[in-house]
Amino acid sequence: MSEDTTYFYAPEVVSTGFLPPEESAHAIRVLRLKEGDRILVTDGKGFLYEAVILSADSKGTAVAIERTVETFERTRPAVHLGIAPTKSIDRIEWMLEKLIEIGLDRISLICTDHTVRRHVNVERLQKIMISAMKQSRKLVTTEILWHDTLKDFLTTLPDNARRYIAHCDESGVRQELREAFVRGEDSVFLIGPEGDFSPKEVEAAKASGFVPVMLGKERLRTETAGLYVGFLHHLYN
């Protein structure tokens, strides 16, 4: 198969032998694939399979896996981004797409004290993330979580990851992220809303082991800050 062959996403393909309805419709109605054609399918769990179409049905295409083409091997430390959703959700959607392309293991959307948007359509965001995963030819889906409070987010973190919180309060001590960042280890980054974290949230994060950092002299938009830390983690590892 050529390098530009479309990836299909079917998380249960091994157990069911079918592409999901949305993927089936794309394969049959858009790409005009037919019985006997070979395709590449990822389960989003680290495996890429070559499969042959047994039944070309736009509501549920039956396939037979013929071989495992590739398996995911982690070459970089994991990165987890905790970020408050922006009022304009399309900015977060764009950020997510780009972060998936370079590599993001988990994203937590957090409703902080100053968050304006109190609800997001997680299902829509998941579709955007899956599309970006397939486009960038990755084999593992990015986990997305919603947290009603920062306190809720802080209780879900692994003990072994380095933790950084970027905030704008100049009254406390902050390090440049480029200097504070520890290479070769899993990282969790916290990015606040347009109105920044509240003082009590900053203190709660610090009490949970987060190192206060700044992302340079410029004040960045929320989604730009999210991209910044994602790119830095990718570049330094």
CA-based shape: elongated
CATH superfamily of the largest domain: SPOUT methyltransferase, trefoil knot domain
Task: Kindly provide the radius of gyration, computed on alpha-carbon positions and rounded to a whole number of angstroms.
Answer: 20 Å
How many structural domains can be distinguished in the coordinates? 2
Query: What's the number of extended β-strand segments?
Result: 11
Which structural class do you get from the secondary structure elements?
A: alpha/beta
Order of helices and strands: EHHEEEEHEHEHEEHEHEH
Determine the CATH topology of the largest domain.
Alpha/beta knot
Query: Termini, distance in Å?
Result: 31 Å
CATH class of the largest domain: Alpha Beta
Instruction: For the largest sheet, list the strands in their spatial order.
Output: 7-6-5-10-8-11-9
| Mean pLDDT across residues | 94
**CATH-scheme architecture of the largest domain:** 3-Layer(aba) Sandwich
Please count the helical segments. 8
Percentage of residues in helical conformation? 25-40%
Q: Point out poorly predicted stretches.
A: none
Percent strand equals: 15-25%
Report on this structure.
Helix content is 32%, strand content 24%. It is built from 8 helices and 11 strands. It is an alpha/beta fold and 237 residues long. The model has no long low-confidence stretch (mean pLDDT 94). The protein is elongated and about 65 Å long.
